[in-house]
């Protein structure tokens, strides 16, 4: 199947922080792939804006180097790279001063879609918004894109929302959570709301529990100073895992439109119960190798910040009363794997007898690697010798139809950037959503800080602290294996 490319209007996309790590690794390679797919109309331009004193040619050389590093050789024919680079421009700018702003103003056009990607430290969001306004760079419906972290608590998130809101309308602000740009996450909505089959079962009567796992193999190396001030709760749960939970738990929106979807997500966050301290397990990785333990990779040798967290949440509404949602995420775990699993209840009566074991339907939504959705169904094991039951996956990925190795699946960033250009906010977090998520998160963090709680140790390459397993075992449940 050839993926259908929906054209977008011509645009000027300004990347503040265009020389930074995120721009090099994700934004520029993503834009190049969209260019290759024919989604960048000829009049469109990408304008890097950062502190380095580059001219267009020097920046183009940087962009070229980034494409060489992050795009496979046979996916970047020289003539396409050249044509893409022709659309790249650069302005040296100071986000906190005057330098460069009149150059940027001169370069921008008012008759194309304008988007400003704030790929810079959050402390620069305010100064950038102010200067865009002051120098009258942005047209009335210009879009701004902001990266995580969006605040570190409710107060700072509110302050950021206010600062951006002083100069831009909420309809112009795109808060990126790249988990929402993943193909499977959107497929989850298609599966849920495009079929008759699942929605009737999607509630406390049929679902035993839900597991959401985002496991990483990387540690904090190099990012220790930033990470230690944040921890797994702020860095992953408050945003990514919370967004996934919302999509699973929300009521069907009346339409697939930005506010209808985001209204329903917000209701989920507001229906979350406070979490009991006994339902939270925090961890820090340890290793026998020198320099490999968490505490050796951050500045504070007594740090109480968690590199792992597992928790049990309850959603107080009719649909989910009594259905636990188990979340876990951590660094230096056994494999890199992100998955949502909806575990259905046992059949009410087994006509086959207990000796054939317990078989449950599990809908597994895999975000990485190998994005896809499978439904575990129980069938008879083939062959003679009586009735034996076996669980087999019903694959809803249609990978073959999507091209070899799913190559045609656009990366989350490129999809989201194109949504910005289209002016579609459905997959972006609204300000009130972010604030509600912090309002739920803050007291939990405050609680463990006040108690001076030390995270439990877990071995590098394991599935997390033993207590995380106990969180499930004590209720007769078990985490799914973390498999790459
Ligand atoms: P980086 O440090 O690699 O790059 C920062 C960029 O900001 C550079 O281009 C620099 O020139 C520019 N800059 C700094 N001060 C400036 C100023 N006064 N005026 C103009 N430009 C200035 O950072 P990064 O890793 O690319 O991250 C950018 C943002 O994206 C941060 O908010 C980060 O938290 C977020 N983010 C990054 C990643 C990632 O993988 N790198 C992932 C998620 C979110």
Automatic annotation (TrEMBL):
Residues 189-480 form the Glucose-6-phosphate dehydrogenase C-terminal domain. InterPro entries: G6P_DH, G6P_DH_AS, G6P_DH_C, G6P_DH_NAD-bd, NAD(P)-bd_dom_sf. Residues 14-187 form the Glucose-6-phosphate dehydrogenase NAD-binding domain. It holds the Pfam family G6PD_C. One of its GO terms (molecular function) is NADP binding. The keyword DNA repair does not apply. Substrate binds at residues 178, 182, 216, 235, 331. GO terms for biological process: glucose metabolic process; pentose-phosphate shunt, oxidative branch. It catalyses: D-glucose 6-phosphate + NADP(+) = 6-phospho-D-glucono-1,5-lactone + NADPH + H(+). Catalyzes the oxidation of glucose 6-phosphate to 6-phosphogluconolactone. This is Glucose-6-phosphate 1-dehydrogenase.
């Amino acid at each position: 199947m050839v993926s259908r490319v929906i054209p977008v209007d011509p645009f000027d996309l300004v990347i503040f922080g265009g020389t930074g790590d995120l721009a090099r690794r994700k934004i520029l390679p993503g834009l190049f792939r969209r260019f290759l797919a024919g989604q960048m109309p000829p009049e469109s331009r990408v304008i890097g804006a950062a502190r380095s004193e580059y001219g267009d040619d020097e920046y183009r050389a940087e962009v070229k180097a980034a494409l060489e590093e992050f795009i496979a050789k046979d996916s970047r024919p020289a003539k396409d790279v050249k044509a893409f680079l022709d659309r790249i421009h650069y302005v040296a700018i100071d986000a906190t001063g005057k330098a460069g702003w009149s150059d940027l103003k001169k370069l921008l056009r008012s008759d194309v879609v304008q988007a400003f990607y704030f790929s810079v430290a959050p402390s620069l969001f305010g100064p950038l918004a102010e200067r865009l306004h002051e120098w009258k760079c942005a047209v009335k419906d210009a879009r701004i894109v902001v990266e995580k972290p969006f605040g570190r608590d409710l107060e700072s998130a509110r302050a950021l929302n206010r600062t951006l809101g002083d100069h831009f309308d909420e309809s112009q602000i795109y808060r990126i959570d790249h988990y929402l740009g993943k193909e499977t996450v959107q497929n989850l909505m298609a599966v849920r709301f495009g079929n008759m089959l699942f929605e009737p079962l999607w509630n406390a009567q049929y679902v035993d529990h839900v597991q959401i796992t985002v496991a990483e193999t990387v540690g904090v190396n190099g990012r220790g100073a930033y990470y230690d001030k944040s921890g797994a709760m702020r860095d992953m749960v408050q945003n990514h895992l919370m967004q996934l939970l919302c999509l699973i738990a929300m009521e069907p929106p009346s339409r697939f439109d930005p506010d209808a979807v985001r209204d329903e997500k917000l209701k989920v966050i507001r229906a979350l119960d406070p979490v009991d301290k006994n339902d939270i397990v925090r961890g820090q990785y340890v290793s026998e190798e020198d320099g490999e333990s968490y505490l050796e990779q951050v500045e504070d040798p007594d740090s109480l910040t968690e590199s792992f967290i597992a928790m049990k949440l309850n959603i107080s509404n009719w649909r989910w009363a009594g259905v636990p949602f188990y979340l876990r995420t951590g660094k230096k775990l056994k494999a890199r794997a992100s998955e949502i699993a909806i575990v259905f209840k046992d059949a009410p009566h087994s006509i086959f007898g207990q000796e054939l074991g317990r078989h449950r339907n599990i809908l597994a939504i895999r975000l990485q690697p190998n994005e896809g959705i499978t439904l575990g169904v129980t069938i008879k094991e083939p062959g003679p010798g009586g009735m034996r039951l076996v669980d087999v996956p019903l694959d809803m990925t249609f990978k073959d139809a999507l091209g070899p190795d799913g190559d045609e699946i656009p990366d989350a960033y490129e999809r989201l950037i194109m949504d910005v250009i289209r002016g579609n906010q459905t997959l972006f977090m609204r300000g009130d959503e972010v604030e509600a998520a912090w309002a739920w998160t803050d007291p939990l963090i405050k609680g463990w800080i006040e108690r001076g709680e030390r995270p439990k140790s877990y071995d590098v390459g394991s599935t997390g602290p033993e207590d995380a397993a106990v969180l499930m075992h004590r209720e007769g449940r078990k985490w799914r294996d973390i498999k790459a």
